Amino acid sequence: MDLASAKENVHRYYRLVDEGNHSGLLGLFAEDAVYERPGYQPLVGRAALRDFYSGERVIADGRHTVRTLVAEGDRIAVHGDFVGVLKDGTDVSLRFADFFVLGADGRFVRRDTFFFSPLV
Domain named SnoaL-like: which ranges (predicted)? Predict the structure, then answer.
């Protein structure tokens, strides 16, 4: 897959997650993809990703805005903002960074997410 198509798949991912289109976004991941996110054990495989997006994810609704996307080889880094509402009704607004690793077919084989929030 060419780099332009890979970048578009990353943008497509955020559109699909914001729309709640779980089946569409799962198709962007390799069957054995690994997703690491603060507060969760590593999610391994599409079944774990499906469980996360359809139930475990604490976000009820929201919108991602990609501010920066940098791609090199099989890696794409994203910096952006998220504004939304958690399932408990809490409003949330934060910055995030995502790192994607692409397989030969352009699907995501790994994703790591980091959030900017005060810890210390």
Answer: 10-110
Structure token pair of residue 8: 């578009």
Q: Enter the CATH code of domain 3-116.
A: 3.10.450.50
Q: What is the pLDDT of residue 87?
A: 93
- Beta carbons of 71 and 3 less than 8 angstroms apart: yes
pTM of the model: 0.92
**Closest by CA position to 27, among listed 2, 4, 3, 53:** 53
Q: Is 7 helix (H, G, I), strand (E, B) or coil?
A: helix
Helix (H, G, I), strand (E, B) or coil at 56: helix
> Which structure tokens are listed for 92?
């949330």
Q: How far apart are CA 13 and CA 28, in angstroms?
A: 7
Domain boundaries, the chain: 3-116
